[in-house]
Amino acid sequence: MEALTAEEPRELGPYRMRARLRETGTARVYLAHGADGRGVCVTAARPDLAALPAFRTRFRAEARAAERLAGPWVPPVLATGPEEWLPWLATPFTAALTLAEAVALAGPLPEEAVRTLGAALAATLERAHAVTGEAFQGLGPDVVLLTAEGPLVTAFGVLGGASAASAGEGGRLGVTVGYLTPEQVAGEQPGPAADVFMLGMLLAYAAGGAGPFDSGPADAAAHRIAHSVPDLTPVPAALRPLLGRCLAKAPGSRPAPAEVAAELVPGGVAPLPGAGWLPPRLTAAIAERAARAQELPGPVVADRVPEPAAPLPAPALNGQAPPQPAWSAPQPLPVPPPQPPQAAPPANALSRLTADRRSLLTAGLAAVAGLAVGAAGVLAFDGDDGDGKAPAADSKPAARPQPVPGAPPTARWGYAVPGGKLLGTPLVQGAVLVVPGAAPTGVDLRTGKQLWTRPELAGLAQLQPAGPDPAVAFGVGPTDFTWFAVADGAIRQKVAYAQLAPGMGTPEVRAHDGTTVWFTATVGKDTALYAYDIATRTTLWRRPLGRGETFEWATAVGGRLIARRPAAAPPKGAKQVLAEFFAVDPKTGKDLWARSYGTVLPTDAAVLSPDGTLLTTAGGGLQAFDLETTKLRWQRGKGAGTYGTPVLSKGVVYAPDTTTKVAAVTAPDGREVWVGSTDLAPTAPVETRTVASASGRTVLALDPFQVTALDAASGERLWKFQDAGTKEQSADRGTYRAVAAGADAAVVWHGATLYALPVR
Questions:
Q1: Helical axes 99-106 vs 280-294, angle rounded to 10°
Q2: Strand 560-566 relative to strand 579-584, pairing
Q3: Which conformational region is residue 719 in: left (phi greater than 0), alpha (psi within -120 to 50 degrees), or beta?
Q4: In a domain, 196, yes or no
Q5: Residues whose CB falls within 8 Å of the CB of residue 266, separated by 6 or more in sequence, listed in order
Q6: pLDDT for 325-350, tens place per residue?
Q7: CB 715 within 8 Å of CB 675
Q8: Which of 5, 149, 293, 575, CA to CA, is 20 to 30 A from 622?
Q9: Domain extent for 111
Q10: What is the mean pLDDT of residues 571-584?
């Protein structure tokens, strides 16, 4: 941190500069404060570059990218001034070290810290690719910050990640990039896969203290990048296979960012990993910087910042916004200061490469301080990179960008369940989300704010509407059936199980249709199936269950209860016991019929459509049977473990497989409509479930790692959502599950957090 010189700005927009923190290849970074005294970080263009139209065009683009990417591991943008005499961008302060400073101070990071860093950066790359569809090009040891609470990315494109920049003839902008990729060495424009290569270089540097292509003369670094095997000897053995794939020469051979994140931290890295993720020496250095920032004259740096408009907001606590991390100013470390960025090498030292004028024109070699690889590429940009004109002094700032297709959705709200445990699936009724737990709560479905909490409803589960009255819900408690008001949780009625049958244990609801629920319960050693009217609170009938008679699956269609049990014995010549489906008369409880369908097993997924079609996943394929005749209507695919549980919406069956695919087929004949992909690239089979929005326009695929939205008409991937864990994450947070999918929002459950995601 250094005092301001006479040539440096004292004010930019609403912010007053206090000190200069550091200088990047294209900008200077200042500690500043606004009228409210909050500490902010202002990144301002170098004066010699600010006059170039090409620079301003790219600065505007990268400022828009920063706004769109705000969220976990990317600080929120507080304000921007892209059209001022010095273009600038303001974000909250955080006490931090650059990755280059951290490695210089304490050597390579521990493996767990590298995994946290890599998963956070990979998730950020995936968001960036979804937003722009282009290479991010903003990674480097000098722009990745390490804070006490987690990593941060502070560059959002080639300008932010540049090691040097200069003004050329005709207003041309020359930018020296820190990391090259094989495709750039070959003169090709980098795509999203180039960022994975850069990530591999960065993580190898963080884990080993040196870049994977550092060994050898500096003037041959580009050749090593393009042709040599990366040296990963200093890297922990467990990380080498993944980093080796990231550093593959062919872009198509590199893993997707989501795969990198999932392999590094399978349970998801928390947005705020918290104290202890870094070695004590680095944590102490960061704390020293925070303390020294507070000693500067002027307003005190605020320890809270406004909640960012993040694509993936941190979960709320009891319906309220969670505390934000303390953002404070970085301070110098007791280590040698970094060398100033070097200018691009002379033209006669560069190799000419073929590219268009908007892309890479020349590539060269330079010893760039702080970079893990001693090579830099020179990019040249003309003034027509955008409109080709320098903005007028009084021109207005560009309007904030609208969301683009593929961008992760901004969750309308996140709600962390009090106590961290859910007792079953929440209920959506009207405009209220009822959350079962140690103290069941009601949440406003529109805002995510808690409306009420009722400790007297503790243990209430198996929630469902209580018949025709939309204001009342029904649940199964430890000792009673309970009816309660969804508006405030007030108990309306209780019926003790002992009133239904002396000694009855807690019932298990199997299905419901209108005001009738079917449940099984045990009295002594005897188990029976009951039909119960929750509107009149009367038992309709009781049907004893024989020994071994179980309910793996049950549903209600057309007033009948359809259930499944194992057949009494396998059919002649069969090695396995098939499933036997039976129908029960809703008025008397008597069996109407019992049938088997093809080779359907008791463990196969089964869905019954309103038109009497039984959809199953027998034999690993997808099969459709006529419920009445048992005839096979159609089948799709074979082989164990091919499909997961199918769902039916508006005449179309959506069936996920155990890899990355979701198939849409017509219900009457099984004709393929489309096959979409979640692009997860798992290393082992995963369970994926699908749900359709009420409009039928969006299909959500939910697996242990993410929620993927697909266009119901085409199968095109619309977006992905990952909450990336919580601060209190555990190794087993479970898969993402859908609670409800309405016309314009879906409630998704992950761990002990509920999110409302916009759908169409």
A1: 120
A2: antiparallel
A3: beta
A4: yes
A5: none
A6: 222 222 222 222 333 333 333 222 22
A7: yes
A8: 575
A9: 11-385
A10: 79
Flag whether 648 is in a domain. no
Close Cβ partners of 523 (under 8 Å, ≥ 6 residues apart): 501, 502, 503, 504, 505
Measured between alpha carbons, how far is residue 534 from residues 482, 597, 603 in Å? 10, 33, 31
Instruction: For strands 427-429 and 526-533, give the pairing.
Output: unpaired
Cα-Cα end-to-end distance for the chain:
49
Mean pLDDT over residues 297-311, rounded? 40
Q: How far is CA 80 from CA 39, 40, 43, 77, 84, in A?
A: 15, 12, 10, 7, 9
- Tell me which of 9-18, 233-242, 333-342, 628-637 is least confident: 333-342
Structurally, how many domains does the chain consist of?
Answer: 1
Residue 375 forms part of a structural domain: yes
Average pLDDT on 352-363 reads: 23
From residue 712, how far is each of 615, 675, 696, 716 by CA, in Å?
19, 11, 7, 8
User: Nearest to residue 672, comparing CAs of 662, 658, 687?
Assistant: 662
Alpha helices in 186-274 (DSSP H): 192-208, 221-227, 240-246, 257-264
Closest CA to 116 of 207, 231, 210: 207
Over residues 458-475, the pLDDT tens digits come to 999 999 998 778 899 999
pLDDT at site 384: 42
Q: Which two tokens stand for residue 597?
A: 């369908």
Which pTM value belongs to this model?
Answer: 0.52
Q: Of residues 355 and 154, which shows the higher confidence score?
A: 154
Strand bridging mode 698-702 / 11-12: unpaired
Q: Are 284 and 292 in contact (CB under 8 A)?
A: no
Q: Which two tokens stand for residue 335?
A: 């280590």
Q: Which pLDDT band holds residue 153 (cuts at 50, 70, 90)?
A: confident
Dump pLDDT digits (tens) for 697-735: 999 999 888 888 999 999 988 888 876 443 333 334 568
Examine residue 279 and state whether it is found in any structural domain, yes or no: yes
CATH code (residue 97): 1.10.510.10
Pairing, β 491-496 against β 508-513: unpaired
Query: DSSP labels for 611-633?
Result: TSEEEE-GGGSEEEEETTT--EE
Residue showing tokens 């445990």: 421
Residues 6+ positions from 604 with CB-CB distance below 8 Å? 579, 616, 617, 618
